[in-house]
Request: fold
Amino acid sequence: LNRDHLGRIARYKARLVAKRFSQVEGVDYTETFSPYDCCSALRTVLAYAATLDLDLPHLNIKTVFLHWKLEETIYMQQPEGFEIPEEGKILQEPLRVAAGITSEVREAEEELETLALYPSDTEPYVFVSKDQKDLMVLVYVADFLLVRSPDDVDSIKRRLSTRFSTTYLGLALFFLGLEMRRDKSGRTITLSQPWYGDDIIRRFRMQECKPAKIPRPSGYKFHEQGSTEEVPTQLYQSAVGSLVYLGTGTRLGLAFAMGTASVYLSCPTVHHWKGVHHVMRYLNSTQHVSLTLV
Reply:
């Protein structure tokens, strides 16, 4: 599901992927993953754009994986509902989608280099122009976030559209699950994830919990011996994973507590769950907190 800045479903997408059986029901079975870690890169790009008052057009490439060229013949067991009578028939076209996940980085670099855009030395998914110092493109699978002065945005969009079938989504208000509010006069961009925080609180039934002022209770330590009674591993992993994602996006204050909680993912106890429970109490009482980039 692709959502807008209000958390509403904007459009549906379907993908065919090779079976890996690595996702677990109750933990991450309904999630879609990508080999990118873009939150720090996104914050850097947005801070740069805010400081120089640059526009942030958002482009989406339709069926992005179908643009990548397969250099090998690949076989895959036919998925249920897509059987072809001839046994052993090569599923070449659908496998562009399945194989694209491993080749997209190489192919994206090659395509962007034809536009004189090259990966940054520090952020491999931020492409910069050697000719135009204020031109950047942040790539996240099918989403391109352009950073450019207003006068040149249209020309960049046209150049990308000649190589890909693109959808222009306007100036970015929502990217990678982060809602963006811009103050042009103050040259700042404020990031928040209100609907994602609300979703965590609802999933773990913490709407009526007692508020907390800090992410960890005074004197509490995850490594200390408390109750040795175990809690369901999937429940603990799901909660920690959700809070870690929130902490890497806009709620950086959660990072230390959740980094410590992550140590006990394989054998959580009631003592560890109390620590995670406290973080969710803090989250529920600080939903208004956001991150401002200047």
Q: What stands out?
A: Residues 88-105 have pLDDT under 50 and may be disordered. The helical segments are 39-52, 94-113, 153-161, 194-203, 233-249, 255-261, 270-285. The first helix runs from residue 39 to 52. The radius of gyration is 22 Å.
